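Entry:
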Amino acid sequence: MKAVNRNLRFVKLVVAAALLIVAVPWPAWAQYMHEPKEALTRNTPIPILQEVGIDQRIGQQLPLDLTFHDETGRSVPLRNYFGQRPMLLTLVYYQCPMLCSQVLNGVVGGLLPLKWSVGRDFDIVTISFDPRDTPAVATEKRDTYLRRYGRAGADKGWHFLTGETPAIEALTKAAGFRYAWDPQIQQYAHASGIMVATPDGRLSRYFYGIEYAPKDLRLALVESSEGKLGNVVDQVVLYCYHYDPATGKYGAVVTNMLRLGGALTLLLLGGFLAVAWRRDLRKKTAPVVDARQHKSTGRTG
C-alpha cells in the first residue's frame, strides 16, 4: 500500500512539473533554469514574465493610420482592412518555433464549424510583432493557413502583414499585447490570444489561449458586426450569455435565463388562455336549436 502511495505521489509530481513547463513560455523557463539555486526558494517572479501578457482594451480604437506591409511588400495603411466587416486580429511572429502556429491553428479550428466565412462575413488580419519578418515569410505563412482553412474567397479576407518597429509598438500598445525579447535564446516571450474588433476598428472581445470555442467566436462576431451578422436566435443567445472579460469567454447569465424562461412561460400561458377564451366565446355565440322544433321540422320534410 505504501508503495502505491509513493507511486501516486510521484505521478502527481511529474504531472505538476509538466503543467508548469507548458504554462511558462520556454524563453522564461530557460532563464529560470539558469537562476542561482538559492533563487529557487525565494518564490521570486521570473523577470521576463513581468513584461509579458495581454491587457484588455475593450472599446479602444486601434490606430488605423499605421502603415504595414502586405504579402507583396506594398505599404498599406491598416485602415484599408477595416470598414465593412468585423475583424479578428491575431498578433504573432512568423518565425516563432511553436506557440504562434498553435494560435493560428486554434483560429482555424474555431472558425471551421461556423457557417460564416472569412472574406465574406468577416476578415482576419494577422500582424507580426517581429520587425525582422519579411513579406516573403508572411506569404509562406499565409499560404499554409489558407490551405488549412480551405474555403473559397478566404484569400480576399485573411491578410498577413509585417511592419517596422514604430508601427508594431504603437499597435501592440493600443491592443494591450505585451511581449519581450529574450536575448539568451534569440526568441520572443509572449502570451497567446486573439482579439475581435468592430468594422471601424474598436476592440470588442479578447480570447486567451490557443483554442477558441466556435460558440464564443460566433457570439463575438455577432456583437462586433454592428447588426450585420446573426439572427433573432443569436440575439436571444446573447441575452442569456454575456462576455466575461476575466475569463475571455461567454458564460450563462442565470438572471437573464430566468427572465427569459418567465417570459416564455407567460407567453405560453397567455396563448392557452386565449385559445380557451375563443372556444368559450364560440360556444356562447353559436345558435341554439330547439330539439322539439328540429323534430317537427323533420316530420314535415
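The chain has three domains: 2-46, 53-221, 255-300.
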